[in-house]
Amino acid sequence: MIRLSQVHKSYGRFEAVKRLDLVIPAGELFGFLGPNGAGKTTTLRMIAGILAPTGGTIEIGGIDIASDPIGAKSRLGYIPDRPFVYDKLTGAEFLRFTAALFGQDGPEVETRIDELLELFELRRWKNELTESYSHGMRQKLIISSAFVHRPEVVVVDEPMVGLDPRSARVLRTLFRRFVERGGTILMSTHTLEIVEGWCDRIGIIREGELAACGTMEELRQEAASEGAGLEDLFLRLTGEHSEPDLDAVLG
User: Fold this and answer.
1) Residue 110, SS3?
2) Are 137 and 122 within 8 A, CB to CB?
3) What backbone torsions phi and psi does residue 244 show, to the nearest 5 degrees?
4) Domain boundaries of the chain, sorted by first residue
5) Distance CA 231, CA 187 (A)
6) Phi and psi (nearest 5°) for 126?
7) Residue 131 CB: number of other CB atoms within 10 A?
8) For 77-120, how does the pLDDT look when each residue is reduced to its tens digit (9 = 90+)?
9) CATH 3.20.19.10, domain 1-75+152-164+178-242, yes or no
């Protein structure tokens, strides 16, 4: 479970996120959308404990991340929008290192590492330095690192970058199985087809505020657009449905 209560983040006079209230229960895959600069990544980084909110409270699995950051973060896996790995570690060493950050090691972790590498077809590169990995391989390793310690909550920022179709399908199945077993996933992406096809509920943030939240049917009702797809709903609910003057741009 993820719970945000009156969470806001300011940089001087600029409010990146404005008093955000949001609850994502266990067993739900939640899609988080918004235009560029709307506050999506700032929100995700606050939930992951990378940024401290200016105010409000964030709970991960019922634990306040401010009062017990280690306890909250131990329940969370984070997949950032840019796959950073340590080039001088092998794939297995990187996953071992990540598990150790959560106090986990030994035979069970080794089995888990092999399972994750096999799942994403990285087993043959297990003992190769990650500096030799392609962008897609690094992305799959980062995804594996988010699951290696068996978290309760996973926060994902643009998970599909660099993934081939087979890996994308594996990831979708992994996410669905994870939430079916009681996990919680918060996923942000600009690929609206993925959100529409994968997510149980969707939240749309605009200028730091939650503009809409609900199932596809609830969003259609809010936008008074029966039968509309997510792209049309997104543009309507963010006030960006007007067409640009392309003729003027192209001359």
Assistant:
1) helix
2) yes
3) -70, 160
4) 1-75+152-164+178-242, 86-150
5) 17
6) -50, -40
7) 12
8) 999 988 789 999 999 999 999 999 999 999 999 999 999 999 99
9) no
